[in-house]
Amino acid sequence: MSENGFAHEVDVTVIVNGERVSRRVDARRHLVDFLRLDVGLTGTHTGCEHGVCGACTVQVNGDVVRGCLMLAAQADGAEVWTVEGLSDNGSLDALQKAFVERNALQCGFCTPGMLITAADLLARDAKPSREEIREHISGNYCRCTGYEAIVDAVEMAAGTRAGATQAGGGSQ
Amino acid sequence: MKPAQFAYARAKDLPHALALWAEAGEDAQILAGGQSLIAGLGLRLADTPALIDINHVPDLAGVTESGDRIRIGAMTRHAELARNPLVAEHAPAIAEAAPLIAHPAIQARGTIGGSLAYADPAAEFPACVVALDAELVVQGQGGERRIPAADFFLGLYETALEPFELLTAIEIPKAGRRRQTVQELVRRHGDYAIVGIVLAADVQGDTLGAAKVVYFGVGDAPVVAEGAARALEQGDVSAALKALNDDLDPPGDLTGGPETKRHLARVILQRAINALRAQ
Lengths: 172, 279
Description:
The complex is a heterodimer. Chain A is α+β, with helices and mostly antiparallel strands. Chain A folds into two domains: about 10-85, Roll (Ubiquitin-like (UB roll)); about 90-160, DNA polymerase, domain 1 (Orthogonal Bundle), CATH 1.10.150. Chain A has helices at about 30-40, 85-90, 95-100, 110-125, 130-135, 150-165; strands at about 10-15, 20-25, 55-60, 65, 80. Chain A has a five-stranded mixed β-sheet, sandwiched between helices. In chain A, helix 3 packs across helix 6 (about 150-165). The longest helix of chain A is centred in the C-terminal third of the chain and has 16 residues, at about 150-165. The two termini of chain A are about 25 Å apart. The model of chain A is unreliable at about 165-170 (pLDDT under 50). Chain B has helices spanning about 15-25, 35-40, 80-85, 85-90, 90-95, 105, 110-120, 125-130, 225-235, 235-245, 260-279, and strands spanning about 5-10, 30, 50-55, 65, 70-75, 135-140, 145-150, 155, 160, 165-175, 180-185, 195-205, 205-215, 225. The longest helix of chain B is centred in the C-terminal third of the chain and has 21 residues, at about 260-279. By secondary structure, chain B is of the alpha+beta class. Chain B has eleven helices and 14 strands. Classes of the chains: A alpha+beta, B alpha+beta. At the A-B interface, strand 4 and helix 4 of A face strand 1, helix 1, helix 2, strand 3 and helix 6 of B.
């Protein structure tokens, strides 16, 4: 990161899934493209690229954010978790099992974003109602399932979680 | 969907941000939450030679209390506004509006200052600050000045901010006994409103004292419904609904024609009155 002035290329260091990653990126590089193209983590998907579909949802410093509405340059010094890291550390275990169990995906394109958004909800509220689940995932589009199975799966994971140890997002 | 090239700088404090802006020129843009700006740049609806990132400027975020007002830093994010106890107590309309804006991932990044400076006519916060008689604190090279919210929104995406002036804080008189509500009609939660309203008043029996009736989504800026407000102060709801015919002149847009919007404006005025009385 250039300390004070403007730059078209920016040096960034980001903690991605617990690992320090340094790259030089275009100032205009979206965080999601940084993760996919510069770091090689293609689990986070690029959908609409203007903040509507939710396929690029990742965790930044504990918050769910749109990877297409944040620049990689802005993530310098931040801690980012993607579906890869949250899968590897077990944070998404209950949700992933429930998604498989309930057939909550067909093509799977929306699934990484859905999982991260659902994990964010369950970290805030261990027993959300179906209405609250719908509300929370309302910014994540699925073109296959009609959402019913996804809501089922999140509800099921919440049930699983009630007796389980805290399995919130990796950076929470 | 990828933005054109631009330069980026991260401001370390407010004087630095203003200096960077002066250096980059008037077309450079301030990057606050970025939830509209970065989308606009990607769609090439916006174009800028340089972005000045103010996310790391100290003291621009957070809510403080001072005398009979609360002060909301411009970089305070929607998610924080939705859960902040000072906001809930002293500016409940802001707390009620925040969860209506888009979705959790947007609320985690979007800022109230960004929303006000962007001045989308269908957005919630511009109407809120007008209805709550807020003062907007702005900082330029020449120093600080204050702009009443009622004078801030000049038109479509147009505000009273001068070139190189940065919105730093919003000061809102504490609600005290006044009640506030935000109501909106949307096809899906999180969308921009088809029609929305912010109503604030001293509720005394049937009368709504010193009523403020401010609509969003019915013009090119927040629209103050003066006639309806005067009627509500007399406790005359049907006169207020009739007054909306003169108060509002909504242009049609993708969400509906003028007559649809007029009808929906009456519907939500009644809902807002009911909500206020039920508080």
